[in-house]
Amino acid sequence: MSSTENNRRSSHVEMPVTYAAVGASKLADVVRFPPEGTESYLEALQLGSGQERFVAASSLLMTWGAQRGAGIEVSEIVRGTDEAYVGPEFDESGQAQGIRVREEQFGPDGEPYIVPGTSAVFTLSGQTPRSVLVVYTVDEDQMAGFAWGTRDEDGVVGEQRFTVEIREDQTVWAVARGFLASPKSGLLGLKGKALIREAVELAKDQLEALAPGAADRAQRSS
After folding, report:
1. Do the beta carbons of residue 181 and residue 153 sit within 8 Å?
2. What would the 3-class secondary structure string for the chain be?
3. 0.85 exceeded by the pTM?
4. Which residues belong to any copy of the DUF1990 domain (predicted)?
5. What is the b/e burial string over 79-102, where b = at least 16 CB atoms within 10 angstroms of the residue's CB?
6. Distance between CA atoms of residues 216 and 212, nearest Å
7. Over the stretch 149-198, which tens digit does the pLDDT of each residue have?
């Protein structure tokens, strides 16, 4: 057995998700070249400027603030551990990277930051709860965020990535991108295109929840 085969086998992780191309949202080209059978999207919102705004928005994002602020109830959170799960690590060119040791981080209220392998249930009022898995996180000097993938087929399936970044001009942006596929059968299948549009609109709501003043709204809704 070759060393290449050994490396491939040792880094392989079974992904309990309902779509292929796990981790593909990390590649910027996924917007132009989404996985077969999916539709991609890219949305961005300026949040302000300066390091203080970047830190505040990053902390909010990494403690489910974008979801809660958009009216999503986040429940049944099962925190991932490096011992139990290793998310895919790739650079922007798609090259696999080594396993990174992550330092534990916490939000202002003591809530731990999201880590790879964390699972949760998202529920919007009047809709079927959705089970998701955090497939990777982003922890860089000028960017923070995470991506989740769907674990069920009770609606659109795919992967969505949310990040906060501070650019060279010191402006701070919230960015969402992902790839989604509509259900293929049943009543959900008949509404496929509409469901994808709704998912993109919900992504926009989550970006807006990271804007200044959103933290108070998120706390009131939690």
Report:
1. no
2. CCHHHHHHHHHCCCCCCCCCCCCHHHCHHHCCCCCCCCEEEEEEEEEEECHHHHHHHHHHHCCCHHHHHCCCEEEEEECCCCCCCCCCCECCCCCECCCCCCCCCECCCCCECCCCCCEEEEECCCCCCEEEEEEEEEEECCEEEEEEEECCCCCCEEEEEEEEEECCCCEEEEEEEEEEECCCCHHHHHCHHHHHHHHHHHHHHHHHCCCCCHHHHHHHHC
3. no
4. 18-75, 112-179
5. ebeeeebbbbbeeeeeeeeeeeee
6. 9
7. 999 988 899 999 999 999 999 999 999 999 999 876 655 556 778 889 99
Tokens found for residue 46: 């300026």
pLDDT digits (tens, 9 = 90+) for 20-41: 899 999 999 999 999 999 999 9
Instruction: Give the chain's domains with CATH numbers.
Output: 3-221 (3.30.530.20)
CB within 8 A of 44, min separation 6: which ones?
173, 174, 175, 176, 207
